[in-house]
Amino acid sequence: MKTWTTALPVLAVIALIFTLGRQPPGIVVVIVALLLAGAVLAAVHHAEVIAHRVGEPFGSLVLAVAVTVIEVALIVSVMLSSGEKGAYLARDTVFAAVMITCNGIVGISLWVTAHRRNLAHFQPGGTGGMLAIVTALVTLTMVLPTFTTTAAGPRFTTAQLIFAAVVSCFLYGLHVFTQTVRHRDYFLPITKEGALLEDDSHADPPTNGETLYSLALLMVALVAVVGLAKVESPVIERGVQALGMPHAVVGVVIALLVLLPETIAAVRAARLGRTQTSLNLALGSANASIGLTIPVIALASFIVPGDLVLGLGPTQLVLLVLTVAVSTLTIVPGKASVLQGGVHLAVFASFLFLTVIP
């Protein structure tokens, strides 16, 4: 295990050094894609090692924050190389992250757990709080620009953008404080009787040295994932253009690549019946994607040239309202069957379909 989880991130970084800023030939693109997939799997392994050491819900935050910080760097770098189309990239990528986490990851996690154990049990108090923050964040940062009147089009003025960035930081900080300090027990996995679920891994927690080793390799793997995704992004953009698809598809592909480690980790937790951990990963990633990305993108917009469009379009607004309504009905009972998982997956499939054929 240690051999490949150490070797793949290092090989991926070496490939990144030799390919970043260049246009590699076809065979190299294929090799880069394979190393990208390997780096993703290695990132999941090292995140799970760290999570085992620090426990829940801190473990769920590790991967969410790390991936989101790197996601911001990827968005900014691609924005700089996409010209006028880059103005919409942040909006498309962040909205795609919300749809992937709140429908894709939530849906498949509920489906897997309920299929194996009849019902998926979780804590509506903690999960509902995370959903409330996701709803507030996405509304204040991506819905309001469509309806504000001071600036023309779905854009914030400078003052509005600063206010949105400050509110995003506050809400995300509140989320982290509540999850890790004030009401930590609201975010721990539970049994069907409502008791806290004990760790059934039977493995001894890793030592401090092993944890720091995994933390370093997690950072290396995540840098490799985002860097190699940027190497692949011109190929993706050319492919999207050749197929006649909307440029928003590029944002969806970026979000899918960046969120793949969290998706795999959430499904693994769901297979063990730890639905709350899966939901922590999903909704925590949604909160981090908005709460951390928007402030940094706002800051970057003052430094780098170009426009920044955050307001959602009509189709995106409908999908967002549907997602919030369905998520609320799923969370309130504190348990879910394959029915709820299937509904979330249907909404996610609709998002993917309507992105390709708007």
From TrEMBL:
Keyword annotations from UniProtKB, A to Z: Membrane, Transmembrane, Transmembrane helix
Main location: membrane
Residue span(s) of domain Sodium/calcium exchanger membrane region: 28-180, 214-355
Superkingdom of origin organism: Bacteria
This protein's record includes keyword Transmembrane helix: yes
Signal peptide as annotated in the record: none
A molecular-function term among this protein's GO annotations: potassium:proton antiporter activity
Pfam families per record: Na_Ca_ex (PF01699)
GO cellular component: plasma membrane
Membrane topology recorded in Swiss-Prot or TrEMBL: Multi-pass membrane protein
Subcellular location: Membrane
Keyword Nuclease: no
Xref: InterPro entries: Alkaline_pH_Ca-Antiporter (IPR052946), NaCa_Exmemb (IPR004837)
Residues annotated as transmembrane: 25-46, 58-81, 93-114, 126-147, 159-177, 211-229, 249-267, 279-303, 309-331, 338-357
Protein known as: Ca2+:H+ antiporter
Organism this protein belongs to: Actinocorallia herbida
